[in-house]
Amino acid sequence: MGGGLRELSGYLAALGGWVAALAAAALPQWRQSSYAGDAIITAVGLHEGLWMSCAAQSTGQVQCRLHDSLLSLDVHIQTSRALMVISLLLGFFGIIVSVVGMKCTKVGEEDPVTKSRIAVAGGVLFVLSGLCTLAAVSLYATQVTYEFFRESAVPVNARYEFGSALFVGWGAASLTMLGGSLLCCSCPAKERRAQQCYRQSPPSTAREYV
């Protein structure tokens, strides 16, 4: 795969991962009502996310309410919020930096070595963004798993399990890190070596005779 095609593929994958991470952060389905065990199917399904909680009626009506207080939230929700915000910010800057550094764009420096370095910097930002998304989703999933299996008086059918937003987040983290890794393969060392060989090529040995 050529360098330009590899960069374009990595950029598109990372961009898709960033959009998916944005959707995962906004979705309220980070955890949902469980129907495991001797469950009685109720007319209301509960969903909770980082920013709001929703109740879906069997008639199709959905009512959502934003979380009232930031400081009263559980620690894992606050941490996941912060990680997702950092992830989206890193990904946003990665989008801008990568556009400047890609070979297929005419933005920024004309020096291929400098552009390769900028592309690598954009790839690093994407990788960090994917890691933050992965940490946020995994932390939340760990807490959901702990609350589901711990010994408590709450019946199984009244507990919560993984919501669809968690799977969207895992997919977003994988795409973002994959795209960032492809962008990081834009090694400027090879191009620098080629330029040095070109500049150090021996001069012409032709002589003029009188």
Automatic annotation (TrEMBL):
One of its GO terms (cellular component) is plasma membrane. The keyword Transmembrane applies. It is a multi-pass membrane protein. GO terms for molecular function: structural molecule activity. InterPro entries: Claudin, Claudin_CS, PMP22/EMP/MP20/Claudin. The keyword RNA-binding does not apply. Gene3D superfamilies: 1.20.140.150. The chain crosses the membrane at residues 12-30, 82-102, 118-142, 162-185. PROSITE patterns: CLAUDIN. It comes from the Eukaryota. Keywords: Cell junction, Cell membrane, Membrane, Tight junction, Transmembrane, Transmembrane helix. It is found in: Cell junction, Tight junction; Cell membrane. Claudins function as major constituents of the tight junction complexes that regulate the permeability of epithelia. Belongs to the claudin family. This is Claudin. It comes from Pampusana beccarii (Western bronze ground-dove). The lineage of its organism: Eukaryota, Metazoa, Chordata, Craniata, Vertebrata.
